[in-house]
From TrEMBL, chain A:
Protein name in the entry: Assimilatory nitrate reductase catalytic subunit
Residues annotated as domain 4Fe-4S Mo/W bis-MGD-type: 24-84
Sorted UniProt keywords: 4Fe-4S, Iron, Iron-sulfur, Metal-binding
Domain of life, per lineage: Bacteria
GO CC annotations on file: membrane
One annotated GO molecular function: molybdopterin cofactor binding
Pfam families, per the entry: Molybdop_Fe4S4, Molybdopterin, Molydop_binding
High-level lineage: Bacteria, Bacillati, Actinomycetota, Actinomycetes, Streptosporangiales
SUPFAM superfamilies for this protein: ADC-like, Formate dehydrogenase/DMSO reductase, domains 1-3
Record Gene3D superfamilies: 2.40.40.20, 3.40.50.740, ADC-like domains, Dimethylsulfoxide Reductase, domain 2
SMART domains: Molybdop_Fe4S4 (SM00926)
Biological process annotations from GO: respiratory electron transport chain
TrEMBL record, chain B:
Gene3D superfamilies to which the protein is assigned, alphabetical: 3.30.390.30, BFD-like [2Fe-2S]-binding domain, FAD/NAD(P)-binding domain
Cofactor(s) in the UniProt record: FAD
Domain FAD/NAD(P)-binding positions: 2-292
Residue span(s) of domain NADH-rubredoxin oxidoreductase C-terminal: 313-375
Keyword Flavoprotein appears in the UniProt entry: yes
Native species: Thermostaphylospora chromogena
A GO molecular function held by the record: oxidoreductase activity
Disulfide bond as UniProt keyword: no
Residue ranges constituting the BFD-like [2Fe-2S]-binding domain according to the UniProt record: 419-465
Protein name as annotated: Assimilatory nitrate reductase (NADH) beta subunit
InterPro entries the record matches: BFD-like_2Fe2S-bd_dom, BFD-like_2Fe2S-bd_dom_sf, FAD-bd_OxRdtase, FAD/NAD-bd_sf, FAD/NAD-binding_dom, FAD/NAD-linked_Rdtase_dimer_sf, Rubredoxin_C
Keywords per UniProt: FAD, Flavoprotein
Length: 712, 476
C-alpha cells in the first residue's frame, strides 16, 4: 500500500495539479523568504548592468513546493528592480564611498574596543543569512573582533524548539524526515502553526495526506485558514499549550495508546513523565485551556490509532517564556506514541526563517560554534580553533542572548557598538520601545541591509548589500536539506555582499586573511569547521547540491548519501535513546487582569514577511495587506463600541500600538490578534513581553495582557 | 525551619512538591496513614471504569522522596499534636518536632449507621477501589448507594464493565447538590440508556447478607429489596478533623483557617478537604492545590503576600459517554429571583440540558448536560468572573449561529470574495480572466496564479469557472 519511503526524496513532484505557466530559461534557485525555500527559476533581461523584466516560475523538482509558489514568491523579483534599493553607503545619513564607510566603521570599532574591551562591540545576525554568512559572521565576531557578544534573531524564532529537541534527541534538526513523509501520514497534529498563510505550498503535503484519509488536527487560539481546514481545531487559550500537551499525554496513557515496546527499546525517563502527567487529567486541562475534553479525546484517538503520525510545533507554542517546556511536552507525547525515529512518523519543528535551520548551526548564536557545536565544550573549541588557526584559549566564551544583548546596549556594562546583519529589530524585537532607546544610546550602529529598514534608518553607518538573487550561497531548509541558492541576476553597482563587508572590516581590523568574500571558498572552510559536529556538512559540495537537488545533513564524507531520517537507528544522545523530561504547566508571564483584560497574540499574514522590510516595498503585497490591523470578536467590538474598519489603540504595560479593527467571529472573545510586520504605530512589538524562557532565552511574543481603546 | 506535613494525599503530597520547588533545602517530614504512595484520587473512577490501571494513578515516582531529600513516613498515623513542645506524636510513639505544621488529613467516607453496612464497600481510597473491582469480578448485580458525583461515576463505571447496576439516591434527582431537577432527570435518563437502573427518593435501611460474608442486596424504607452481591457506598464524605479538635484547634465543619490557611494556632495550617475557609469546605482537588501553593509561598517566604481568597469550584463528571459540567449557582429560578437571568436549552431526547445563570451581565452559574463545544469557554467565563457577557446570549451556547453567512456557492459569492488566498485572487478577477478568454483552471492560473500556492482553492476556482460556463450557456 504505502510506497517505500526514501524513493520520493530528491526530485519527485508531489502534486497532480501542476501549473502551466511558461517557463523561461533562467537560473534554478530558491525563494528569498521562508524556510520552505521553494524552488524557483529566475530569469531576467540585462543590459548595461541594469536588470529588467525579472520573471519567476516555480520549480517542480524541489519536493518542498513541487511547482507551487505563494504571492510572496511570485512577486519576489520586484525588489530587484523597483528602485527601493540602497546602492550607496551612508555615514551619519550622508552618502559616502565604500572606503570611507568601511574605514569609519572599522576605526570606530577599533577605538571602542581599545577603550572598553572587545565585549564592547556586539554583532547581531539573522536567520535569513546564508550558511556562509552565518559562519563568517560568527568567525568575524570571535576572531576579528574578539567579542563574545554575538547573537541573532533566530533566538526569536526557533530557539525553544531547538533547545527541546536537543534535550530529547541530543540534536536539533528541526524536521528529522523529508517533507514528503507528511503525505504518507495518517494523522498530523500541528501545535501553533499556520502554514496556510506562512508557507502556503506546505499545505500541498497535508492535502495529499488528507486525500489518503489522514486526519489533521490544529491547535491555535485563532481559527486560521490552517485551523479552518483541519478535521479538529483545538481553539486554545493563549499561553496554555503546555497544559494541552500534558492533557493529551494523560489521555494517551489512560486510553492505552502508549507504545510500551518502543518506550522500552528507544527511550529513557518515561516513568517520571507518566507519573507527572497523572496530575493533568483532561477535565483539569479543559478548564485551563478551554479545549473540550471530547476534542482532546478525539485528538488522542486520531494520533493513537494512526499507523503513521506526526506531531509538529510552530511559533505559536514556542514563543513563550515556557516554550522549551511546551515543546518538550509535545515531544513527550510523540515519544509515548512511539513516533520519533520511526519511519514515516515523527516530531518536527516547522522552522520559520529562510535559513532558520542553517542559521542556527554555524556559529552566529551566543553559545555556539560551527557544526552545531557548543562554545563551552573544550573539544569543540580546539577543533574550530585549529580550523581558524587561532589558540583555543583566545576564543571568547558564551555571550548574551538576543534580547538580553539588545537590552544591554549602551548600558554601563553593555556593548557600545553594534554591527547588524539581516535583521530589523526596531520592528521585530519584543518591547520595541525599549530597544529604540537602547540603539539610540550606542556610540556606533552599523547596519548592513538591502533597503533602508527602520533599523538602518537609525544607523550611523549603513552598508548596502546584495540580495538573494544577486549572490550565491547555501540555505538549509526546514527539512535539514542543504540547498544552493544561486546568483541569477547582476547586482546593481554600488552594493557589496555581506561576505565582502565582513572581509573588508576584518582586513581593517588586522585580519587581511581568513575572511574570503567568495561564498564557495567560505563554504569549503565551513565544511572543515563543521566536520565531526552534530551538523556535519563536510561531505557536502556545491556540485553535489546542484546534482542531487539538496543534501540532508549530517553528511560526514563526500561518498556519504546524506541523512534524510537521522534517528531511525539511534538518537543523538550518548546512549542513543531519546530522553523523556517531566515538565509542568505554568500560566503566562503576564496574565490578564482588570486593567489589561485581553490576551494579545501576534503572528503573520500571507502577503507580508517578518519585519516587512522587503515585502512592504512590493506593491502587490502592500495592496493585499496594506496596514496593521487588530482582529477581534464582534462581541468585544460591541462592548467597546468599535465598528469594522475603525481605528483601535492597543495598550499594554510596555506601550501602545494602533491598527484597524477587523471583526472576526471565529477568534476567541478574550483574545485579540495583531500581525507583526508593520512599522511606526502599527508595530505589534511595541506591546509584547520580554519575559524570557529560562533555557532558550526566547521572549514571550505570543501572549501578553492588553486593553483596547477607540483611537481618538 | 522544619516542616511537618500530616497527610500524604493529594493536598499533602502537592504541598511537599510545591515547597521543595521553592526551597531545595528546608527539612520536610510527611506522614501518611495509607501505606501507598500518594495517588490521584480524581482518577479512581477511571480505575473503577477500567480506563486507568491502579499503577497509573500515582502522583509521585518511587525514588522522588529520596531524590528530593524528603522524609516520608508512610503507614503511620499521627495521633496527637503537642502544641507546647511543637511536636507531633505518631501511633508508634515517635515524636517529630516542627516549626511549621500543615494538616492535610483530608476527608473520610460517610458510612450510614444501618444494619449490615459492614457488608458494603465504601468508594473512597485506592484500596476501596481494588476491593470493589475484586467483588465486581464475581458479582451478578451491583447496587450503588448515593447518587452524588462519586456514586454516578461508580455506577457508570461498573455498568461499563457489563455489570447490571442499580443506583439509589435519597433525594428526588441525581446530583441534587449541583443540578436542578430537570438536569438531574436528563442525567438519569442518559445513565438509564447506558444500563444503570435508577431509583430516586429512596432510603436504604439495611444491607442484606448473602452467601459467605457477602451482601445479597439492600432493603429500602418502603420494604422493597434491591438485589446485588456488590454494594458500594457513595454517601458523601466528611472532613477528618479529630486530630485538630483533640489538639484544641478551632473546628467547624472543617478545621477553620484564614486567608493564609492558618488555624487558630498560627504555627499550624490546614489545607484541602479537612479545611474550612470562609465557611466553605471544598471537596475538590483544584482548591486544595491552590491552597497548597499559597502555603508553600508563605512557609518558604517565596511570596509573602500570597493569600487564598476562595475558589470557584467546577464539577465535571468523569464518566464515559456522559458529559456533564456544573458550576456556581445552579439552582436559581428566575421566577422567584428577579436579579437573575436564566438561559436554557433543553432537548431531552438527545440527553441535552444547558442552563446559564447570569447576574449583572456576568456568568455566575451553569449546568451543561450532554456534549457541547462551549464547555471550555463557559468554564473559563465562570472562572474569570469579571468578564461581561455579550448581549447575544444564544451565541454563548451556540457559537457561530449568529456569525456572518459564508458564501459557499459561486452564485452567492460577491465579486470581491477572495477565492485564492495565497495569490490574492478574487472571484471578480477570475470572471475578468474568463471574459478575456481563459476557459479552464490552467488558463486562469497562468494569468492570476490562482491555485499555485497551497493548492486548496482548486475546487473553488473550478466552481467559479463552471458557473461562468453555465451563465454563458444560459445567455447564449
Amino acid at each position: 500500500m504505502a510506497k517505500p519511503l526514501g524513493t520520493t526524496i530528491g526530485s519527485m513532484p508531489i502534486t497532480s495539479h501542476p501549473t502551466t505557466e511558461h517557463v523561461k530559461a533562467g537560473t534554478a534557485t530558491h525563494c528569498p523568504y521562508c524556510a520552505l525555500q521553494c524552488g524557483m527559476i529566475v530569469a531576467a533581461d540585462e543590459a548595461d548592468g541594469v536588470v529588467r523584466n525579472v520573471s519567476i516560475t516555480p520549480r517542480r523538482d524541489i519536493p518542498a513546493n513541487a511547482g507551487g509558489l505563494c504571492q510572496k514568491g511570485w512577486t519576489a523579483g520586484e525588489l530587484l528592480t523597483n528602485g527601493e534599493r540602497l546602492t550607496t553607503p551612508l555615514v551619519d545619513g550622508r552618502p559616502a564611498t565604500w572606503e570611507e564607510a568601511l574605514d569609519h566603521a572599522a576605526s570606530r570599532i577599533a577605538a571602542i574596543r581599545a577603550e572598553h574591551g572587545p565585549d564592547a562591540v556586539a554583532v547581531f545576525g539573522g536567520g535569513g543569512l546564508t550558511n556562509e554568512k552565518a559562519y563568517l559572521l560568527g568567525k568575524f565576531a570571535r576572531v576579528a573582533v574578539g567579542t563574545s557578544q554575538i547573537d541573532y534573531n533566530g533566538r526569536f524564532c526557533m530557539s525553544s524548539a531547538a533547545a527541546a529537541s536537543i534535550r530529547a534527541f541530543g540534536m536539533d534538526r528541526g524536521m528529522p524526515f523529508p517533507i514528503t513523509d507528511l503525505a504518507e501520514a495518517d494523522a498530523v497534529l500541528i501545535a501553533g502553526g499556520n502554514m496556510a498563510e506562512t508557507m502556503p505550498p506546505f499545505i500541498r503535503h497535508l492535502t495529499l495526506m488528507r486525500e489518503r484519509g489522514g486526519g489533521l488536527i490544529v491547535a491555535d487560539p485563532r481559527r486560521t485558514p490552517t485551523a479552518a481546514a483541519a478535521d479538529l481545531h483545538l481553539q486554545i487559550t493563549p499561553g496554555t499549550d503546555l497544559a494541552l500537551a500534558l492533557g493529551l499525554l494523560h489521555l494517551a496513557i489512560a486510553e492505552g495508546y502508549v507504545d510500551d515496546d518502543y518506550i522500552a527499546a528507544r527511550t529513557t525517563g518515561f516513568d517520571a513523565v507518566r507519573t507527572s502527567v497523572s496530575a493533568w487529567w483532561p477535565e483539569r486541562v479543559e478548564r485551563i485551556t478551554g479545549v473540550p475534553v471530547a476534542l482532546m479525546r478525539e485528538t488522542v484517538r486520531l494520533l493513537g490509532t494512526a499507523r503513521r503520525a506526526m506531531v509538529l510545533t510552530g511559533r505559536g507554542v514556542e514563543q513563550h517564556a515556557k516554550g522549551t517546556d511546551t515543546v518538550t511536552a509535545f515531544i513527550n507525547l510523540a515519544l509515548a506514541l512511539g513516533l520519533p525515529g520511526t519511519e514515516g512518523s515523527g516530531y518536527a519543528c516547522i522552522t520559520g526563517q529562510g535559513n532558520g535551520q542553517g542559521g542556527r548551526e554555524h556559529g552566529q548564536k551566543a553559545d555556539q560554534l560551527p557544526g552545531y557545536r557548543r562554545i563551552d565544550d573544550p573539544a569543540a573549541r580546539a577543533h574550530v580553533a585549529s580550523v581558524w588557526g587561532v589558540d583555543p584559549a583566545a576564543l571568547p566564551g558564551p555571550g548574551r542572548s538576543a534580547y538580553e544583548l539588545l537590552d544591554a546596549l549602551g548600558t554601563r556594562d553593555g556593548p557600545r557598538a553594534l554591527l547588524l546583519f539581516g535583521s530589523n529589530p526596531l520592528v521585530s524585537a519584543p518591547h520595541v520601545g525599549r530597544v529604540i532607546d537602547r540603539l539610540a544610546s550606542l556610540d556606533l550602529l552599523v547596519v548592513c541591509d538591502i533597503v533602508l529598514s527602520e533599523t538602518a534608518a537609525a544607523a550611523d553607518v549603513v552598508l548596502p548589500t546584495t540580495q538573494w538573487a544577486e549572490e550565491t550561497g547555501t540555505m538549509t531548509n526546514l527539512e535539514g536539506r542543504v540547498l544552493l541558492r544561486r546568483r541569477s541576476v547582476a547586482a546593481p553597482s554600488g552594493v557589496r555582499s555581506d561576505l565582502a563587508v565582513l572581509s573588508g572590516l576584518a582586513a581593517r581590523l588586522g585580519h587581511p586573511r581568513g575572511f574570503p568574500d567568495d561564498p564557495e571558498e567560505v563554504f569549503e572552510e565551513l565544511r572543515r569547521a563543521s566536520a565531526g559536529g552534530p551538523a556535519d556538512y563536510s561531505g557536502i559540495t556545491y556540485e553535489r547540491i546542484a546534482e542531487e537537488g539538496g543534501v540532508f545533513w549530517p553528511c560526514p564524507s563526500e561518498d556519504h548519501p546524506g541523512t534524510p531520517r537521522p534517528f531511525l537507528d539511534r538518537f543523538a544522545t550518548p546512549d542513543g535513546r531519546a530522553r523523556f523530561t517531566p515538565v509542568a504547566h505554568r500560566p503566562p508571564a503576564e496574565d490578564i487582569d482588570e486593567d489589561y483584560p485581553l490576551y494579545l497574540t501576534t503572528g503573520r499574514v500571507l502577503a507580508q514577511y517578518q519585519s516587512g522590510a522587503q515585502t512592504r516595498r512590493i506593491a502587490p503585497l502592500t495592496e493585499a495587506a496594506p496596514e496593521a490591523f487588530v482582529e477581534l470578536h464582534p462581541d468585544l467590538a460591541e462592548r467597546i463600541g468599535v465598528a469594522d474598519g475603525e481605528r483601535l489603540q492597543v495598550i499594554s504595560r510596555r506601550g501602545s500600538a494602533s491598527g484597524v479593527a477587523r471583526l472576526n467571529s471565529t477568534i476567541r472573545a478574550d483574545t485579540v490578534f495583531m500581525p507583526f510586520h508593520y512599522a511606526a504605530e502599527g508595530r505589534a512589538n511595541l506591546l509584547t513581553n520580554t519575559a524570557l524562557d529560562p533555557i532558550s532565552r526566547m521572549p514571550e511574543f505570543k501572549v501578553c495582557a492588553v486593553r483596547l481603546e477607540k483611537a481618538a | 525551619m522544619r516542616l511537618v506535613v500530616v497527610g500524604n494525599g493529594m493536598a499533602g503530597a502537592r504541598l511537599v512538591e510545591e515547597v521543595r520547588a521553592r526551597d531545595p533545602r528546608m527539612p520536610i517530614t510527611v506522614f501518611g496513614a495509607e501505606r501507598s504512595r500518594p495517588y490521584n484520587r480524581v482518577l479512581l473512577s477511571n480505575v473503577l471504569a477500567g480506563t486507568a490501571r491502579p499503577d497509573q494513578v500515582r502522583l509521585v515516582t518511587p525514588g522522588w522522596y529520596a531524590e528530593h531529600d524528603v522524609t516520608a513516613v508512610l503507614g503511620t498515623e499521627i495521633v496527637a499534636v503537642d502544641r507546647d513542645a511543637k511536636e507531633v506524636v505518631a501511633a508508634d510513639g515517635r515524636r517529630e518536632p516542627y516549626d511549621a505544621l500543615v494538616l492535610a488529613t483530608g476527608s473520610e467516607a460517610v458510612v450510614p449507621p444501618i444494619p449490615g453496612v459492614e457488608r458494603a464497600l465504601a468508594f473512597r481510597t485506592l484500596d476501596d477501589c481494588r476491593a470493589i473491582l475484586a467483588a465486581a469480578a464475581t458479582a451478578r448485580r451491583a447496587v450503588v448507594v448515593g447518587g452524588g458525583l462519586l456514586g454516578v461515576e461508580a455506577a457508570r463505571g461498573l455498568a461499563g464493565r457489563g455489570l447490571p447496576v442499580t443506583l439509589l439516591h435519597l433525594a428526588d434527582h441525581l446530583m441534587d447538590r449541583q443540578l436542578d431537577p430537570e438536569a438531574g432527570q436528563v442525567l438519569g435518563q442518559t445513565l438509564a440508556g447506558l444500563g444503570v437502573r435508577i431509583k430516586t427518593g429512596v432510603t436504604v435501611v439495611e444491607v442484606l447478607g448473602g452467601a459467605g460474608n457477602r451482601p445479597a442486596g439492600v432493603r429500602l424504607a418502603d420494604g422493597e429489596i434491591v438485589d446485588g452481591e456488590l454494594v458500594v457506598l457513595a454517601c458523601g464524605v466528611r472532613p477528618v478533623t479529630g486530630l485538630a479538635a483533640a489538639s484544641g484547634l478551632k473546628v467547624g465543619r472543617g478545621i477553620v483557617v484564614d486567608d493564609e490557611l492558618r488555624t487558630s494556632d498560627p504555627a499550624i495550617r490546614a489545607i484541602g478537604e479537612c479545611a474550612e475557609h470562609d465557611g466553605t469546605v471544598y471537596g475538590l482537588v483544584a482548591p486544595a492545590w491552590e491552597q497548597a501553593a499559597v502555603v508553600a509561598d508563605l512557609i518558604t517566604g517565596y511570596r509573602t503576600g500570597s493569600r487564598y481568597r476562595g475558589s470557584r469550584p467546577v464539577t465535571r463528571l468523569k464518566a464515559k459517554s456522559v458529559e456533564l459540567a456544573a458550576m456556581g449557582e445552579t439552582h436559581v429560578d428566575e421566577t422567584t429571583d428577579s436579579g437573575a437571568e436564566v438561559v436554557r436549552f433543553s432537548h431531552r431526547a438527545r440527553g441535552t440540558y444547558h442552563k446559564l445563570v447570569i447576574r449583572d451581565d456576568r456568568l455566575v452559574g451553569a449546568i451543561l448536560v450532554g456534549e457541547t463545544p462551549v464547555v471550555g469557554t463557559l468554564t473559563q467565563l465562570f472562572d474569570r468572573g469579571g468578564r461581561p457577557l455579550p448581549g447575544d446570549r444564544a451565541g454563548l451556547l451556540f457559537p457561530g449561529v449568529t456569525g456572518p453567512p459564508v458564501a459557499d456557492s459561486p452564485v452567492r459569492m460577491p465579486d470581491s470574495a477572495r477565492v485564492c488566498r495565497c495569490n490574492d485572487v478574487t472571484k471578480g478577477r477570475i470572471r475578468a480572466c474568463w471574459e478575456s478568454g481563459a476557459r479552464d483552471v490552467e488558463a486562469v492560473a497562468a494569468v492570476t496564479r490562482a491555485t499555485t500556492g497551497c493548492g486548496t482553492c482548486r475546487e473553488a476556482v473550478e466552481g467559479v469557472i463552471g458557473w461562468l460556463r453555465e451563465q454563458e450557456g444560459a445567455t447564449a
